[in-house]
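User: Hey, quick favor. My workstation is busy. Could you predict this chain's structure for me?
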Amino acid sequence: GDASMKLYLKGHNERYPVEQLQMQLFGDRPTQFVETPFSGEDGAVSTLHDGRLYRTATAKITLNGKTASASRRIRLEQADVRMTRRILQQSYYLAAMQVLDTVPPWGALSGVRPSKLSTKALLAGKTRRQAERELEREFFVTPERAKLCVDASEHTVEAIGLLAPRDLSVYIGIPFCPTRCAYCSFVSESVERFGEFLPPYLDCLL
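Assistant: No problem, here it is.
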């Protein structure tokens, strides 16, 4: 239906990563951000709690009368902003998977370029397989999509290797995609719907 999904944050104000994931996983339900607790209605509560040793993220999601929850934790000494956001997203995703019928191929990823993560892994000296496993384990990406991602990253690393010290690297976005990925926050459209704009766009670009 088109009824809204509430979102309540408890113990933190990291709204963006959680809201992005909610909008992506429950795309047919507009998100309604609330600042007071609720019960019995469809929505999610995302909680962050610091104990003596661990920071724990918990998500409790209700959809069509079914409620599920999941938690992820990290040691406090590892709990920087990036890792905190990651456990918030992981706990949300794992709870959502218990109330949803389908598993998204890009898992818990949200944002723009998933290959950014695998490129970083390769540049840090990790193997291709390690980069794939990180996407699969940390973000629940399917093996097929993880492989696609690392393929793109290998080409990126190759291109980086071709740069001379004073060369510039320019990123050009071509906003026409075969399909629209659910995780993507870029301005882009599918070729199916807006294909006729591609030739004039490329003419202008050239």
